[in-house]
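A.,

Following up on our hallway conversation. Structure tokens first:
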């Protein structure tokens, strides 16, 4: 009887672990980290805050800060999910100032 109980418990644990793995993968959204699609790109507008852009595109794959620590110039780079190159978004005063076009193949700086 104890053996049956252990087998049932092991099966339940295995099913729960599989369900957790499926839920975790579903939360990834199907796109690679630091990459945005054309649809996400189209939603980003001049004047948006860093938080608003991150809510749309997630965490950028590369960031760069320059200038004063109180009001830095910030550049975020995202890969494109459906083509080569990257998107470069620059922030001044914590808001989007410029966004590179999606169609142009911007390459990362070394």
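Then the amino acids I'd put at each of the 110 positions:
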């Amino acid at each position: 009887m104890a053996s049956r109980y252990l087998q049932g418990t092991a099966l339940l644990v295995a099913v729960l672990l599989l369900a957790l793995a499926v839920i975790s993968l579903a939360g990834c959204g199907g796109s690679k980290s630091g990459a945005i699609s054309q649809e996400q790109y189209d939603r980003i507008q001049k004047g948006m805050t860093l938080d608003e852009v991150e809510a749309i595109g997630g965490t950028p794959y590369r960031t760069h800060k320059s200038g004063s620590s109180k009001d830095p110039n910030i550049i975020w780079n995202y890969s494109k999910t459906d083509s080569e190159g990257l998107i470069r978004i620059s922030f001044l005063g914590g808001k989007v100032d410029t966004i590179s076009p999606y169609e142009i193949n911007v390459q990362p700086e070394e």
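The longest helix spans residues 2-26. Curious whether your intuition agrees with the design.

B.
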